[in-house]
Amino acid sequence: MKNVKLKVKNYGLISFYIFNLSFLIFNCLFLGCTPKAKYLIENYFPPEKIAVLPFNNQSVDLDAPVIMRYLFNKRLSAVGYNTIPLDEIDEKLREMGITDAGQLPTTTPKELGEKLNVDGLIYGDVIEFKYTTLGFYYARTVQANFKLFDSKNEKLLWEDERKVSHKKFEFKDIGKAFASQLIEKTLDKALRSPLKEESNGVVNLSIMTLPRR
User: Fold this and answer.
1) Is residue 36 classed exposed, middle or buried when 0-12, 13-18 and 19+ CB atoms within 10 A define those classes?
2) How many other CB atoms sit within 10 Å of the CB of residue 127?
3) Which residues are CB-neighbours of 57 under 8 A, at least 6 positions away?
4) Were both Cys, which of 21, 145, 163, 181 would link to 125 (CB 3.0–4.6 Å)?
5) Of 123, 132, 118, 197, whose CA–CA distance to 157 is shortest?
6) N- to C-terminal Cα distance for the chain?
7) Sequential pLDDT tens for the chain (213 residues)
């Protein structure tokens, strides 16, 4: 009789935990499990018009800052922010003698804001953008830092840094695994979309921390 009561009690506990886990999964899927918004100053309100500046590159991939900037600008616009075309930004920057992100520190957010006619500026820094293959092991990693400045008072309004990495071990056939990874990497480059999943992950997670307009 004691064993029966114990089983009933354990069953009740298991049911309780399953219910709570199901409730958590439901909230994540339907209500949204998103990173918390980052407000760095009081009475923060998103700038009316934003320019996504050329991204700095610490990685060894020359395409990385171009890809990440494009994805960030596209996603930022999709969530309701008023952005200006990237080619328009680059043309005006060239008029200022700025042709890459490394030259941005030669001017100020206020000067950039006036030249571009925007209220906010996004600065980006690609920290990692790599695809490592070692026969039985591969890793795809993207990491980047983003900052939003108010161009009028030059205050840093928001900053976020994200890293998305996928790793996999394949011990069955090392030769076949290496060939498969090499083909995948070559196709990524050929299609000009290397590390697309990881890049989108970094961008989407970061933009989730911005307040919605």
Assistant:
1) exposed
2) 18
3) 64, 65, 101, 125, 126
4) 145
5) 123
6) 62
7) 544 444 434 444 444 333 343 433 333 333 334 556 566 676 777 899 999 999 999 999 988 999 999 999 999 999 999 999 999 999 999 999 999 999 999 999 999 999 999 999 999 999 999 887 665 667 889 999 999 999 999 999 999 999 998 876 554 554 454 445 454 555 455 445 668 889 999 999 999 988 776
Q: How far is CA 23 from CA 13, 20, 26, 35, 36, in A?
A: 15, 5, 5, 19, 20
The pTM is what? 0.73
Euclidean distance between CA atoms 52 and 86, whole angstroms: 7
Task: Give the Cα separation of 142 and 205 in Å (integer).
Answer: 12
Task: Classify burial at 146, counting beta carbons within 10 Å of its beta carbon; exposed 0-12, middle 13-18, buried 19 or more.
Answer: buried
Residue 103 DSSP symbol: G
Helix (H) / strand (E) containing 51? strand 50-52
Alpha-carbon distance of 188 to 82, in angstroms, equals 31
Q: What is the rounded distance in angstroms from the CA atom of residue 78 to the CA atom of residue 11?
A: 47
Contact 49, 88 (CB under 8 A): no
Q: How far is CA 162 from the centre of its chain?
A: 6
Rg (CA), the chain: 23
Nearest to 123 by CA among 92, 147, 87, 89: 147
